[in-house]
Design brief:
The chain is an alpha/beta fold and 315 residues long. The protein contains 14 helices and eight strands.
Length: 315
């Protein structure tokens, strides 16, 4: 662990373990929030458990909290590290550095600081973009990779400008979030409208509870830098696309599990990863929308347990 990390304050309040609502009984006995100084920036991570290291990377517009329902069971077999990405939650929010390559480098530096040379990685939504970049750029660091619920800019075929209404409701933010300034101007003060619509449209038939959505929205609304940071990965798409066009020439050889919700990405995730990787298992979870870890935690946990067992057992 970095010596710098031991001198940092303990995260508190909204966004931390101590300030998070509706955690499972015993969660705070297993998991703690901590700041980790990577040398470039300070990241917030929630850590706990025993076994080989397992890094969990959230999507947009969420934080580490999206993994809360599967973390306790995973902690029986793994040292779980659930991180807030650069610009998100309680992690630092610099102006630059939101291309997938830099974000992947953040996570490598995080795991270095925590003393983990080799680890397994789970990343959904924007976390999938970062996880793919990490696997391609740092192949010696990963044992197994699980991704879900996202296309890969520069790898996936581009979406047409005109989409059917249901798809448009789910995907229009991909263009909106890339705007340089007007998106923040329009959303500021209307965070509940914008993010509430995003959560509802991407959920399919099984909506997230209102208080869960409100928790995420309140974190984004509390700080202009949080709203700004939430858009920055999208604004960096041109750089990420150029990077991915190079990455896809170097195919992944590690085992990959690609997961989609039947009411969201479906088998698109598996098809996407087969464009870049040689050993891909695909899984579509029935009755599930985009928010897999919260809509189908038992099904996700079962899939992770099966896929990660060889890694857990040192095989």
């Amino acid at each position: 662990m970095s010596a710098f990390s031991t001198r940092l304050p303990t995260p508190e309040g909204p966004g931390s373990v101590s300030g998070a609502p509706q955690l499972a009984e015993g969660f705070t006995d297993t998991f703690t929030s901590r700041y980790v100084d990577t040398g470039e920036l300070r990241l917030h991570a929630v850590t706990g458990g025993d076994g080989p290291p397992l890094l969990l990377v959230h999507g947009w517009p969420q934080t580490w909290y999206q993994w809360r329902m599967v973390m306790p069971a995973l902690a029986r077999d793994f040292q779980v590290v659930a991180v807030d990405q650069r610009g998100i939650g309680l992690s630092d929010k610099p102006q630059d550095g939101y291309d997938a390559g830099t974000l992947a480098g953040d996570l490598v530096a995080l795991m270095d600081a925590l003393g983990h040379q080799r680890f397994a990685l789970v990343g959904f939504d924007t976390g999938m973009l970062i996880s793919y970049a990490l696997a391609a750029d740092h192949p010696d660091r990963l044992a197994r990779l699980v991704v879900g619920e996202a296309p890969l800019p520069g790898v996936s075929p581009p979406f047409p400008l005109i989409l059917p209404p249901q798809l448009n409701d789910r995907l229009w933010h991909l263009a909106f979030n890339q705007l340089v300034k007007v998106n923040e101007q329009l959303v500021t003060g209307r965070e509940a409208i914008f993010f509430g619509a995003e959560y509802a449209a991407s959920a399919g038939t099984k909506k997230l509870p209102d208080d869960t959505v409100r928790y995420y929205v309140d974190i984004l609304a509390a700080d202009p830098d949080a709203l700004h940071g939430s858009f920055q990965l999208y604004r960096a798409f041109p750089t990420t696309i150029a990077q991915n066009q190079q990455r896809k020439t170097r195919r992944l050889t590690l085992p990959v599990l690609a997961i989609g919700g039947a009411e969201s990405s479906g088998d698109m995730v598996g098809a996407t990863m087969r464009l870049t990787a040689d050993d891909v298992q695909g899984l579509v979870i029935p009755g599930c929308g985009h928010w897999v870890a919260e809509q189908a935690p038992e099904e996700l946990l079962a899939a992770l347990t099966t896929f990660l067992t060889p890694y857990r057992d040192g095989r």
